[in-house]
Here is the input.
Amino acid sequence: MLLLLLLVIYTFRNMAVFSSYGFINTISYSANRSWVWINENIKELHSRKETESPAEDASLQEIISEPSIIIPPLYSASMTKEGASSYSLSDFNQSLASLDDYQFWSSGYSANNFIIQADVACSSSTRSANWDQSGCGFVFGLQDNNNYHAAYLALDGYVRMHRLEDGERYDLQGGYYDRLDTPEGRATYAVEKLNSELIAYVNNQQVVRIEDPKIKSGDIGYAVFSSTNQPEGIRCYMKSVTLWTIP
Here is the structure.
């Protein structure tokens, strides 16, 4: 159909030479020009498709490639890490009324090297609580109820850490940030573990950095440290909880 249409067009365009070359020659010439035009456009179409195909493939590859995990520059592991993972954890909201005691809850995650960060609000149901034992934190390297590490931020402004080994508690070096508001204090709190190194941050400031060769890989959990038996005791609320696991 296309060939017939082009034949008619070229025939009319060449009518000026019809009288010179005759009707048959004019039709033959027009048919030949029509066929050449069709072939040239088919070749151009194939050429254009081959040129554009690699760009489309590259674009597709770019879409399906997973982006690298970027760890915030504040932390020691602040670089793009191949194989690193990032998780947004659920908010945590628990209270404990038990004098100079603490309790922990599993996050459902386990890691060797990691950073866990949260916006923390800690409140006491009484103004007569022991602020050094009133706080929110994390347990990690959790093997069982008798073997793990703990690090918490207390309302007196200190980060305190300890290791529980075969049921026996060993207090580790802590660090002072600044006294938080009482009976309710708020801060951004983070704990980072890199091999045998343990680091704690409060409001984007490094407060503790220690080495403990006995730190192990294990489960990670939330912890509430209580200093009162009053109803409601100490309440810990964590939101915007982010966990980075590092190879």
Summary: The chain has three helices and 13 strands.
